[in-house]
Amino acid sequence: MLNLTKSSGVSYETRAWLLIAGVLAFRLLYSALFQTSPAGDEAYYWDWGRQLDYGYYSKPPFIAWLYAFVDWIGNGSLFGFRAMSAVLSAAATLVLFLFAREMFDSRTGWIAVILTVAIPANAVLSFFLTIDAPLVLCWSLALWMFWRCLRGEGKAGSYLLLFLALAIGHLTKQMMMIFPVLAVIYVALHRDTRPLFRKKAVWITMALSYLSLIPPLVWNAQNDWITFEHTGHHFESGTGDKNIFVERIGEFLSFVGTQLGAVSPLIAIALYGLCFVGLFRIKKIPTPYRFLAVFSAFPLSLIVLLSLRQTVQPNWPAVFYIAGVILVAGWFSGIIKTDFKDSFRKRYLKYAVAIGVSLAAFFYFGPVAFKLIGKEGNKADPTRRMLGYDNVCEKVDELREQTQHDFIVSTGHRDYVSQLAFGLHDQPRVYQWEKRPGIHSQYQLWNNPAEDGFVGKNALILVPTGGVVHKPLRKAFESVEKVDDFDAVFGYNREKSFSVWRGIGLKEWPKLPEEKPAH
Prior knowledge:
Blueprint: H1 12-33, H2 40-49, H3 62-73, H4 78-103, H5 106-118, H6 120-125, H7 132-150, H8 156-172, H9 178-189, H10 200-209, H11 214-222, H12 226-233, H13 244-263, H14 265-280, H15 287-294, H16 297-306, H17 320-332, H18 342-372, H19 389-402, E1 407-411, H20 414-423, E2 430-433, E3 459-464, H21 471-474, E4 477-489, E5 495-506
Parallel strand pairs: 1-2, 1-3
Antiparallel strand pairs: 3-5, 4-5
């Protein structure tokens, strides 16, 4: 079996650079050769990028700004999304290596790169351009620069990078706001680090980074604090009909299972094991170990406890694994001491990387294999949720040519709206009618067809799952007539029915159903 850590005449630094470059090249080539439809979130954020603003329904605005930039340089291509995600992931891995090398040595940095490449979630993160791709880069850079500034190695450039990483991170995802909190916890934990509170430049830099949140805060103030309301829903505990104990245990086991798969089982076991030990010996372990434990063990423990209360999304812990990977790399390199023998650690590393790479390879080549055997979209197919929308768009484009209309409406989930907007040949504006009470997506915050001047005009209306046009939407037109029914293949043994209607003469856009009061 390949020896991952023994010197072969090539420096660990050279090996790290070559591996990062090689993986980036592979991901770019793969994305060019095996293009799929965008994921639902990708099409959704792309649509945000066509209407730039200072805030959005569920997230701060940076992802929309990024999509606008990618759409501009990539000329609207799906490859542009994939390439940007791969580049951001490569940059984050490089920062991880540089930080691990500075904290420990180049051998540890090399192992950290190997582990990162072997983590299946990293393959996913480097393929889909969602908020996690820029967030992981920002968090990795902030972690490194914070360490440098605390140790007095940070010059003006380090403080500037710390500020930019935090500020852009705040604009990317709400999770970034936890970073300064963890920074304070780290410094306050031990008498040796408490004097670091006197480094005023570090804390002023962190405080100033929150100024980047002013634009989305102003936007939220103008939109009834909708992002805060949406974020609050993520922390509501389940209140289903199931036995509460069974439900909580089920949520916990689901979280554990997804994390074992996302991080790879052996890497996850080592990471959580070191975090557990570090958490209970937090004041006795060496400073680098303590630093990494605070930025991994502390928040990971809280998320594990949270999974006993409610559903936890699989990507929530993503940024906390960054310090955790360096922690595991330090253990594998022998710098972080435990009672395990070197021979055990070396064997463990080989098997951990082999399993992780196998799982990551399945993400890339599993869809190709399923397609070759005629089972594309099988339940085990990683691209299952992206399939079928191109078939829907192709059929809708055919019906558009046969039906006089001025604008397009889709009912149902926002994915249908955004996938139509991206997939139709001219990428038109697509409006959403949502029958559920309350606001559930950005589409319900943007102008409706009446506000955009379509009163008296005709609409093409897509009704997913077939059926009739909802009564409030039907009454908004002078008349509504059916155009066609069709089925679209969404993968192996999966078909969905759709109805297409023509709304003639828009009178007014129906008001949003009001949220029912809680009992």
